[in-house]
UniProtKB/TrEMBL annotation:
UniProt source species: Argiope bruennichi
Protein name (record): Substance-P receptor like protein
Source lineage: Eukaryota, Metazoa, Ecdysozoa, Arthropoda, Chelicerata
Location of the protein in the cell: Membrane
Family: Belongs to the G-protein coupled receptor 1 family.
Recorded GO CC terms: plasma membrane
C-alpha cells in the first residue's frame, strides 16, 4: 500500500460517479421521509418520550428550586443547577432529534438542524460531564480544606463559564464537518446527515482499489473519549475516595455530644450513598457510549451491520438517560431539593427545618443560617466561663438553664435549681443565665431546645 495522487482516489471524483449511478436507480423504499413502523420502532419512540418528559420535569424542577429559593443559592447548588440546564438541553436537542429519527428513514429536519442539533448534543454532553467533575472538585475542596480555601459564588460562576466555553470550542468541528448530503434517486431525493472529514487517500495494490482514511475523525473521537470519559472518571473517583477517607477518619471537633455524633453519622451516610449512586450511574450510562465511539472511529462509512445499529441505539439511549437520572440523584437523594421544591409549591414545610437539612445535606458549603448558631454557642461559652470563675469564689453548686426568647434582640433569664424564691434570696446562691434566640422568628427550634448545664463538684455535665 502506498499513497497516490491518482484521480481514481479523488473523493469528489468518486462522489460524482456515485451520483451518476444513483440517478439511474429507483429508491428501494416508499418515496417518503417516514417509514412503516414496526413494534421495535414504537418501543424506541416511547422509550425516548418517557425520559424526555421525565428529564425535563426533573431538571426544570431543580432549576426553579435553586432560582426561586434564596436559601438554596449556594455554590454546590449552582453547579447542580448548571448540570440541570445541560441535561434539560440534552432532553430537547439530543433526545428530541433521536426520537424523531426513529420515525424516519432519512434526515428530514433540514441542513441547519443537521449541523446545529449535533453541535448542541456535543456541547450539552460535554458540559454535563465537566459539571459533574466540577461538583466532585467543589466537594473535595469544601471538605478537605474548609478553612484554607474559600469557595465563593464568584469563583463558581467563573468555573461554570469556563465549562461552557470549553464545551463550545470542543464541539465546533461539527459545525464544519457535519453536512446534509442529498442522494438524488430517480424517483426520490434522500437527505442524509453525515460527517465529512478531510480524507487521506491511497491505492491498495493488494485489493487493486482506492482506500480512504479519515485520520482527523479518528483523532477527534479518541480525544473526545478521553476528555468525556476517562479524565472525568479518574477525577471523580479520586476526589470522592479522598472525601470518603476524610469523613471516615475525621471526628466532630469540640465536645462529643450524642447529637453531634448522630449528625456526623447521617452526613457520612448521605455522602457515601450519593457518591456511590453518582459513580455507578455515570459508569453504567457512559461506558457503552465510549465503546461505540471506538467502533465508529474504526469502521468506515460503508459498514453498517445490523448489530452495530442496534448497539448504537442502546448506547445512545443509556447516555441520554443519565440526564434523566441526575435529577433523581441530586434531588431524590437530597432532602434539600425535595423540601426546597415543596417550599416553592407552598407545601407547608418550615423554613427553619429546611435550613437545618441543607446544613446536613451539604457539609462544607457556606451556610448563612449557621451564623446565629455560632453566636449562640459563643455566648454560652462566655457565660460558662464566668460561671466557672464564680464557682471557685463562692464554692457553691450552680445550675444553669438556657431559655428561649420571643425576640432575637433580647436576653431572658431563668432561675436556677428550678426554684422560684423571692428576690431577697442571696445573690451568691443564684446566678442569672442570659440566652440569645438565634432563629428570630418567635418559634422554638428543635435544635435549640432547653439545654441544662450542671456544674457539680467541679465537673461539667453535658
Amino acid at each position: 500500500m502506498m499513497l497516490t495522487n491518482s484521480s481514481d482516489c479523488d473523493h469528489d471524483f468518486q462522489r460524482n460517479e456515485l451520483a451518476k449511478i444513483i440517478s439511474n436507480l429507483s429508491y428501494e423504499y416508499e418515496a417518503s421521509y417516514f417509514k412503516e413502523l414496526d413494534n421495535s420502532d414504537y418501543v424506541k419512540f416511547f422509550a425516548y418520550i418517557i425520559i424526555i418528559i421525565g428529564g425535563l420535569i426533573g431538571n426544570i424542577s431543580v432549576i426553579l428550586t435553586v432560582a426561586l429559593n434564596r436559601s438554596m443559592r449556594t455554590t454546590i447548588n449552582y453547579y447542580v443547577a448548571n448540570l440541570a440546564v445541560a441535561d434539560a438541553l440534552i432532553c430537547i436537542f439530543c433526545m428530541g432529534t433521536h426520537s424523531f429519527g426513529t420515525l424516519t428513514r432519512s434526515f428530514a429536519l433540514g441542513a441547519f438542524m443537521c449541523k446545529f442539533s449535533t453541535f448542541m448534543q456535543m456541547v450539552c454532553l460535554l458540559s454535563s460531564v465537566l459539571t459533574l467533575s466540577a461538583i466532585s472538585c467543589d466537594r473535595f475542596i469544601a471538605i478537605m480544606f474548609p478553612l484554607h480555601v474559600r469557595i465563593t459564588k464568584q469563583r463558581t460562576s467563573i468555573v461554570m463559564q469556563i465549562i461552557w466555553v470549553i464545551s463550545i470550542v470542543v464541539s465546533l468541528p461539527f459545525l464544519f464537518f457535519k453536512k446534509l448530503i442529498l442522494f438524488e434517486w430517480r424517483d426520490f431525493v434522500e437527505p442524509v446527515c453525515a460527517e465529512e472529514w478531510p480524507k487521506i487517500s491511497y491505492w491498495d495494490k493488494d485489493l487493486h482499489e482506492c482506500r480512504q482514511i479519515e485520520q482527523y475523525r479518528f483523532t477527534y473521537y479518541i480525544t473526545c473519549s478521553i476528555v468525556l470519559y476517562f479524565i472525568p472518571i479518574i477525577v471523580m473517583m479520586t476526589a470522592y475516595s479522598l472525601i470518603l477517607w476524610k469523613l471516615w477518619i475525621s471526628e466532630v471537633p469540640g465536645e462529643r455530644h450524642a447529637a453531634n455524633i448522630n449528625v456526623q453519622y447521617r452526613a457520612r451516610k448521605k455522602v457515601i450513598k450519593m457518591v456511590l449512586v453518582v459513580l455507578i450511574a455515570f459508569i453504567i450510562c457512559w461506558t457503552p457510549m465510549q465503546i461505540q465511539i471506538y467502533i465508529s472511529a474504526l469502521q468506515s462509512e460503508a459498514q453498517s451491520d445490523k448489530w452495530i445499529e442496534q448497539y448504537q441505539w442502546i448506547s445512545n439511549y443509556l447516555a441520554f438517560a443519565n440526564s434523566f437520572i441526575n435529577p433523581i440523584i441530586y434531588g431524590g437523594f437530597n432532602k434539600t431539593f425535595r423540601e426546597g421544591f415543596c417550599i416553592m409549591l407552598r407545601c407547608g414545610y418550615r423554613r427553619d427545618r429546611f435550613a437545618r437539612n441543607r446544613a446536613i445535606d451539604d457539609p462544607g458549603v457556606e451556610n448563612n443560617s449557621k451564623k446565629s448558631s455560632t453566636l449562640f454557642l459563643t455566648l454560652r461559652g462566655v457565660y460558662s466561663s464566668i460561671a466557672s470563675i464564680s464557682l471557685k469564689t463562692t464554692r457553691s453548686r450552680l445550675t444553669f438553664t438556657t431559655g428561649v426568647t420571643s425576640s432575637p434582640s433580647r436576653f431572658t433569664s431563668k432561675t436556677i435549681n428550678g426554684t422560684n424564691k423571692n428576690s431577697s434570696q442571696k445573690s451568691n446562691n443564684m446566678e442569672m443565665m442570659p440566652v440569645y434566640h438565634p432563629n428570630g422568628d418567635g418559634d422554638t427550634s428543635p435544635n435549640m431546645k432547653d439545654t441544662c448545664v450542671s456544674i457539680a463538684d467541679g465537673k461539667q455535665l453535658l
